[in-house]
């Protein structure tokens, strides 16, 4: 397990805190692998609720672009496939999944937030998904399922930033919750998570699951495997 992820465990609830505050909790490969293993372990333990949050000034800046020069297109593709695997694992979890966002959040960090069933946000939070600027399709259908496809198209084609207020208006954010209200929100969510017996809760989630993981993965790979991924990412980084 990496130092980049803190996990607090109880019999019913596991809390995952992204712990790269100096990098705005960007998702590097070790952090993604730690999250995948941690969520698998929580499922195996019989946990009823998973909570995701970020240390420092935000939830997550998304895909870590800090070491692009040392990586090939193939390296980057594998990392993105693992991110998609994480998103599907969280979105299809038999547990109630809860995320808290604050500060500025980008790309795969927004996708991880959107993969959760209860999505709480501080009023200072903002969300931006710039992946299409470098030709990447990640989390697009899931975002469209949440906010509606017309609204998703409008936001994504402009790659524009969404405020917490707008995110709440369109359904990306379930409720605005400040840091001092997180404990109460977690307690309320845990009551919901344990209201039904585990088998019934899992059946409910399966019936309502709109996910198409094979299609999501195919769309990601099709976009990321187009030659020049690294060059497009470097060009995007240089423009910021």
UniProtKB/TrEMBL annotation:
<dbReference type="GO" id="GO:0016829">
    <property type="term" value="F:lyase activity"/>
</dbReference>
<keyword id="KW-0443">Lipid metabolism</keyword>
<dbReference type="Pfam" id="PF00378">
    <property type="entry name" value="ECH_1"/>
</dbReference>
<protein>
    <submittedName>
        <fullName>Enoyl-CoA hydratase/isomerase family protein</fullName>
    </submittedName>
</protein>
<dbReference type="GO" id="GO:0016853">
    <property type="term" value="F:isomerase activity"/>
</dbReference>
<keyword id="KW-0413">Isomerase</keyword>
<dbReference type="InterPro" id="IPR029045">
    <property type="entry name" value="ClpP/crotonase-like_dom_sf"/>
</dbReference>
<keyword id="KW-0456">Lyase</keyword>
<dbReference type="InterPro" id="IPR001753">
    <property type="entry name" value="Enoyl-CoA_hydra/iso"/>
</dbReference>
<dbReference type="GO" id="GO:0006635">
    <property type="term" value="P:fatty acid beta-oxidation"/>
</dbReference>
């Amino acid at each position: 397990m990496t130092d980049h992820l803190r996990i607090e465990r109880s019999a019913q609830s596991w809390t995952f805190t992204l712990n790269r505050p100096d990098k705005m909790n960007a998702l590097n490969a070790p952090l993604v692998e730690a999250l995948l293993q941690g969520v698998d372990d929580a499922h195996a333990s019989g946990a009823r609720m998973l909570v995701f949050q970020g240390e420092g000034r935000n939830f997550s800046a998304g895909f870590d672009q800090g070491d692009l020069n040392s990586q090939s297109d193939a390296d980057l593709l594998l990392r993105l496939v693992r991110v998609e695997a994480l998103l599907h694992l969280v979105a299809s979890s038999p547990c109630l999944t809860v995320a808290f966002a604050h500060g500025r959040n980008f790309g795969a960090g927004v996708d991880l937030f959107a993969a959760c069933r209860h999505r709480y946000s501080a009023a200072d939070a903002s969300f931006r998904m710039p992946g299409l600027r470098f030709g990447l399709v990640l989390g697009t259908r899931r975002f469209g399922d949440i906010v509606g496809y017309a609204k998703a198209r409008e936001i994504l084609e402009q790659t524009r930033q969404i405020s917490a207020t707008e995110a709440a208006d369109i359904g990306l954010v379930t409720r605005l919750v400040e840091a001092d209200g997180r404990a109460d929100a977690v307690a309320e969510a845990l009551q919901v998570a344990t209201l039904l017996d585990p088998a019934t809760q899992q059946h409910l989630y399966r019936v309502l699951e709109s996910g198409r993981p094979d299609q999501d993965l195919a769309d990601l790979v099709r976009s990321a495997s187009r030659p020049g991924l690294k060059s497009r990412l470097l060009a995007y980084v240089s423009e910021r």
